[in-house]
Write a structure and sequence with these properties.
It contains six helices and twelve strands. It is of the alpha+beta class.
Length: 255
């Protein structure tokens, strides 16, 4: 059995445990591929593919050490930002994290094009006495790591609860009757809105009850026309009549 543990982002990683399961919201020390790390339990026991093991419940000493290392990682972040700016390297540092023993420093960054960071790897190793690993992140991961506000005015899904990025296509926006302007259907990351995927099944159900665009239909009152617009949320269609006039008709009024 495993428990889901959260670190810096909402994405859960699952760790097996021995004996009694650690309680929800407890801080635990886990073993990952990088070494020991401190995370917070966010799920009850379940069967999931595991990423490592729970070593122990985090003690006060563990939490104090983790806090000191977070402060050290924050200092490393600002130091690296200053060095990249000084050297004119077009890369954005998203975050730095030390393992609990302080021997491994992970640096997450984003860049529009490929950059060479080998010199900075050596520099950080000498400064902090730790093995340094640079991880390049994409635009969506960048928004997830830093957090952003969505078009809805709420904090973006990727930085609060989203566990992965589904494939999003322009067809989903077209089915939902949204304007196909990139500014209207893109998130803060510059990619298509993730919520298009989660809302699409509802639109599919609603559209199945309505005629397609450009179909010729008639109302129960005998008025016929060509469907020029479909409004799935309202459950109506707009008909273009022979005289050039438009008429909005509810699905219940269609023959």
């Amino acid at each position: 059995m495993t428990v889901g543990v959260r670190f810096r982002t909402p994405v859960l990683r699952y760790f097996r445990f021995q004996g009694e399961p650690p309680p929800l919201d407890a801080y635990v020390v886990v073993r990952t591929s990088r070494g020991l790390e401190v995370g917070r339990v966010r799920t009850p026991p379940r069967r999931e593919r595991e990423a490592g093991e729970v070593v122990r419940l985090a003690s006060k000493e563990d939490l104090d050490r983790a806090a000191r290392l977070r402060a050290k990682a924050e200092e490393a972040l600002f130091y690296l930002k200053a060095r990249l700016k000084e050297e004119g390297v077009a890369a954005k540092v998203l975050g730095c994290d030390f393992t609990l023993d302080g021997r491994h420093l992970t640096v997450r960054y984003a860049a529009m094009e490929r950059v060479n960071l080998r010199a900075f790897t050596r520099e950080l190793q000498e400064r902090y006495g730790a093995r340094v690993e640079f991880l390049a992140e994409g635009p969506r991961e960048e928004a997830q790591y830093l957090g952003a506000l969505g078009a809805c005015g709420m904090e973006s899904c990727c930085s609060t609860w989203l566990q992965g990025f589904a494939q999003v296509s322009i067809k989903l926006a077209r089915d939902q009757g949204l304007p196909l302007s990139p500014e209207k259907i893109s998130g803060p990351c510059g990619r298509l809105l993730c919520c298009l995927t989660y809302e699409h099944p509802v639109y599919q159900e609603l559209l199945a009850e309505l005629p397609r665009k450009n179909a010729r239909v008639c109302t129960k009152a005998g008025v016929c026309g060509k469907v020029q617009k479909v409004n799935p949320l309202k459950g109506t269609v707009e008909l273009l009549l022979e005289g050039g006039k438009s008429l909005e008709v509810a699905k219940e009024e269609l023959q």
